[in-house]
Amino acid sequence: MTERRDLAAMLQPLVKSLIAAELRVLEEHGISMWSYVVLSALDDSPIRTQAALAEAIGADKTRIISTLDRLQEAGLISRQPDPEDRRARLLAITQDGRSARRAAQADIQANEDRVLAALSAADRQAFLRAAQALSAIPHEEIVG
Amino acid sequence: MTERRDLAAMLQPLVKSLIAAELRVLEEHGISMWSYVVLSALDDSPIRTQAALAEAIGADKTRIISTLDRLQEAGLISRQPDPEDRRARLLAITQDGRSARRAAQADIQANEDRVLAALSAADRQAFLRAAQALSAIPHEEIVG
DNA sequence: TATTGTTATACTCTATAACTATA
DNA sequence: TATAGTTATAGAGTATAACAATA
C-alpha cells in the first residue's frame, strides 16, 4: 500500500462537516440530532424499551430521557407503560414522527449527494459500498 | 442513487472506533492524541508560531499549551523565543519527536490496513481515493 | 434481589474572557 | 493599540451514582 494519510485523520474532519451540515438541516426541521437519531432508530426497527433504544443508538440511558420527553410532547413518539411489565415504557414512532424523520432524511441525503458528486460515479459507488461494509465491522474488531 | 443509510451515520461510528484503536496504540507509545496531532503537523510541514499551529490543526490556541509543555519537556519538540519577535515562540519537531511520530503512525496505519483488508483491493483503493478527495473539500462547502 | 426508568451529581472537554509581555 | 502566549473561569456534554417503582 502506497503512503497515505491516517484514515481517521482524513475521515474525522469530513464527518465533522457532515454533522454540521446535518445539524443545519435538522434545525430547519425543528428537531435535534438526538431526536433524529431516536426517530431513525424507531422508524427502522421496532424497539420496545428505553434501555434497548439507548443500547441500539450507542447512548447512555440517562442521556435520552429529555429527548424522549420532548419527542413525546411533540407527538412524534408514543411512550406507554407496558401492561405486562409496568416498569417498562413501550416506545413507538407515530405517523407524524415518521413523516418528520423522512422529510429530514431526504434533505440530509440530498446535501450528502451534492457532496458525493465530487467523486466519479464509480468511486462514489465504491465509497458507499466500502462505508457500508466498514461500518458493519464491530467496534471491538477495529480496536483489536 | 439507490436507497442508503445516512453517510454521517455510517462513518461516525467507524471514525469513533478508529480513534479508539488509535488511542490504544498511542498509549503504548506514551503520547496523547493531541501530542500526536501536533507532532504530525510539525513533521509534515514547518509551522512557526503556536497560533499558526492551532489554526492548522483546528484547535483553540489555549488548548494546545499544556500539550506543547509536555512535548517540550519530553524533548519531542523545541520551543524557542523568536529573536525577531520575542512575543512568539518558534516551534520545531526534534529528531526524537520525528521518530516517535513515525513509530506511532506505522502502528496506527498497520491496524487501519488490517481493517481495510475487509474490502476488495479495488474497493480499498477507491475508498482511500474518495476519502482523500472528500477530506479536501472545505468545511463551508459541505455545510453549504 | 434485580431491573426500568428517573433524578442528581461529578467529571471532562471545550470555549470565553482576562492577563503579561512584547511590538 | 494590537498581537503572541498564558492563565483562569465558565459552559456544554457526558458519565457515574443514587433513587423510586415494580418485578
UniProtKB/TrEMBL annotation, chains A, B:
Signal peptide stretch: none
Pfam families: MarR_2
UniProt domain HTH marR-type: residue ranges: 4-136
Descriptive protein name: MarR family winged helix-turn-helix transcriptional regulator
InterPro entries: HTH_MarR-typ, MarR/SlyA-like, WH-like_DNA-bd_sf, WH_DNA-bd_sf
Chain segments annotated as coiled-coil in the UniProt record: none
Record organism: Nonomuraea roseola
Lineage top rank: taxon: Bacteria
